[in-house]
Design a protein that fits this description.
This protein is α+β, with helices and mostly antiparallel strands. Helix content is 12%, strand content 29%. The longest helix has 15 residues.
Length: 288
């Protein structure tokens, strides 16, 4: 089993704001990136539900995110949260799709059925006030917010016929993309069939990647067995030092630190069974 850390949701270039960690409930609301202006995905921020009474657009407005409107369509990918929309099809399962260079990377790494995606993104604490939610300064972090175990892999071509429940996904709706490939969630986890094959997490300190006290959210604290000296290989992070001679990895007594790269959407991790156990335990502690 390979573990894939996948950067998804708003970032500084796509979206321009952090996603909120709602401190009162522990919920991690990953804002999906806006769709390209020429694409009508049929789903807007006003269609995604925080709860029965509030949409993602409502929450954005409370947080001071004013650049989006009822007419802004979203690129809901990965689509792994069954409750974020009213699902009309009983066969719905989570879907994540990649294309172009990002899919070329996954193909080179031979991602297969049974491999496990952990989705992370840029989050900031948000507290409830009389006027609604408000971001808390100084709480920027990379946090793991969801997961998906691959149950099916399906290339998407321009003229293919596909199950009707998949068609609303933006990569099935607009197929003019190179190497367009769907990763479809298993019904349940292969290592714990009481847990669905995809889903989202509530906040827990164990889900935080960013080293505590770091102003740069890209500096991570990881278990020591992630370090390359332990036989672990993480794509885009193979070298111990950058070209300028700065440490990429540093091994400490009971953990290691990583200066994670800005490029690359998926970081594929191989070579160490302890990383697989860590990922399985992470999910089971949150959801069992």
């Amino acid at each position: 089993m390979k573990i894939i850390l996948s950067r998804k949701g708003f970032d500084s270039s796509a979206g321009g704001y952090p996603s909120p960690h709602l401190v009162d409930s522990g919920r991690l609301i990953s804002f999906p990136i806006p769709e390209d202006e020429e694409v009508n995905s049929g789903v807007g921020y006003s269609d995604l539900r925080v709860d029965q009474n509030h949409t993602y657009l409502d929450l954005m407005e409370q947080l001071g995110i004013k650049k989006y409107s009822n007419g802004t369509y979203v690129h809901l990918d990965p689509d792994i949260n069954a409750s974020v929309m009213q699902r009309k099809h009983p066969e719905w399962r989570g879907i994540f799709v990649q294309s172009s260079a990002a899919q070329s990377h996954l193909a080179r790494k031979n991602i297969q059925i049974g491999d496990l995606f952990l989705f992370f993104g840029w989050f900031k604490d948000a507290v409830r006030t009389a006027a609604g939610y408000k971001y808390v300064n100084g709480t920027h972090r990379h946090v793991i917010w969801g997961y998906m175990q691959v149950g099916e892999i399906e290339p998407i071509d321009k003229v293919g016929h596909y199950d009707s429940w998949k068609l609303p996904h933006p990569h099935y709706l607009y197929r003019d993309r190179d190497m367009n490939t769907a990763y479809i969630a298993a019904l349940s986890l292969s290592f714990n069939n009481s847990i669905p094959g995809c889903g989202t997490f509530k906040y827990d300190d164990s889900l935080v990647l960013t080293l505590e006290g770091q102003r740069k959210r890209s500096v991570w604290k990881l278990p020591h067995f992630f370090h390359p000296s332990m036989g672990t290989r993480m794509s885009y992070h193979e070298d111990l030092y950058s070209k300028s001679g700065r440490p990429v990895w540093e091994l400490r007594d009971n953990h290691c630190t990583l200066q994670s790269v800005g490029r690359g959407q998926e970081f594929v991790i191989e070579g160490n069974d302890e990383v697989v156990k860590w990922a399985k335990d992470l999910i089971q502690r949150q959801l069992s």
